[in-house]
Amino acid sequence: MDKNDIIYVAGHRGMVGSAVCRALAASGYRNVITATHGQLDLTDRRAVREFYAASAIKTAIICAAKVGGIGANSAGNATFLHENILIAMNTIMGAYEAGVKRLLFLGSTCIYPRMAPQPIPEDSLLTAPLEKTNEGYALAKISGLKLCEFLRRDCGVTYHSLMPTNLYGPGDNYDINGGHVLPTMIRKFETARTEGHKSVPLWGSGTPLREFLHVDDLAAACLFVLEMENPPDLLNVGTGVEVSIRELAEKVQAATGCTAAIEWDSSKPDGTPRKLCDSSKLRSLGWKPRISLEEGLARTVADYRREVAAGTIRL
Ligand code: GDP
């Protein structure tokens, strides 16, 4: 990538897209273009085609997606499949038809089988059934990464994908029912602290294992692979550090300074028992995460408090 290239970031208002835009600006990329949802509906094939045709984009970074935690996904698999498959097909195929030579597509490690070997290597893709709670989202992301792979193999463009583990950071969605576990926990503990509640309700058994990556580390990984001439088709991005949901709850409790007791609601789903990705391929190429969970949590709690005070929080 040249610093003067026109780079399109799809989904620049989301947590991932905004982190990618910050990283591009910090690295001196001067021509980043974006379009708000109001300006461009990515589920509208014709609109996306027209957008690409009107701009001389050299590189597209597809961060746009409908995302949510276990609550939102399990209640809305049809919408997660439909919306995400349209966004993936339109942004990838639209780029190809407009002559864009380079594209990075972002997904998530929920594309891998529920009972994949741990840590999950890239080649476990499509070897066994998916986790049911987020099957719709996963199928859409698998379709997107396969479209990139087919176009690269058959049509001479460098389209490739990154699959990050569970992400968190500034601009996250703090919706109690629809959000991911880490931001939801921050909100629950902060609310209990500021409102003096005696207990904090959390979901499931607390035993599932997850890995958490700060979104600024993912953004650095995006630039890292985009600066490579010939990156692998598919790479995982994670820290390699695994925590149980119970341990995470204790860390968030400590980071917020909340003293309320934790109550586990076993009527809520646990989801996949373990989701640690194998990031050794990306690490062997030279990328590594820089933000520990403790540091990232402290930063994110501070971001949350700032956003609450400013009234900009996504709830
Ligand atoms: P996943 O990693 O794709 O399964 O999605 P999430 O980020 O929503 O994490 C879900 C895990 O956190 C499950 O094991 C849930 O049971 C557990 N969990 C505990 N409390 C909460 C909560 O308040 N919200 C969410 N979303 N998950 C929670």
Task: Tell me what the structure shows.
Helices cover 42% and strands 16% of the residues. With 315 residues, the chain is of the alpha/beta class. The chain has one domain (6-310): Rossmann fold (3-Layer(aba) Sandwich). Residues 69-71, 110, 134, 166, 180-181, 184-185, 202-204, 208, 210, 245, 268-272 line the site of guanosine-5'-diphosphate (GDP).
Number of helical segments?
Answer: 10
Rg over CA atoms, rounded to whole Å, is 19 Å
Distance between the termini: 36 Å
Q: Give every kind of bound small molecule, once each.
A: guanosine-5'-diphosphate
Mean pLDDT: 96
Provide the helix percentage.
40-55%
Q: Which residues form runs of ≥5 with pLDDT under 50?
A: none
What are the main properties of this structure?
single chain; 315 residues; alpha/beta; Rossmann fold; three-stranded mixed β-sheet; 10 helices; 42% helix; globular; binds guanosine-5'-diphosphate
Helices and strands in order:
Layout (H helix, E strand, L loop, with lengths): L5 E5 L4 H12 L4 E3 L11 H9 L5 E4 L7 H6 L1 H21 L4 E5 L28 H21 L2 E7 L1 E3 L12 H15 L3 E5 L5 E2 L1 E3 H12 L7 E4 L5 E2 H12 L4 E5 L8 E2 L4 H6 L7 H18 L5
Parallel strand pairs: 1-2, 1-3, 3-4, 4-5, 5-10, 6-9, 7-12, 8-13
Antiparallel strand pairs: 8-11
Helix pairs in contact: 1-7, 2-4, 4-5, 6-8, 8-10
The chain binds guanosine-5'-diphosphate.
Guanosine-5'-diphosphate binds next to helix 3, helix 6 and strand 7.
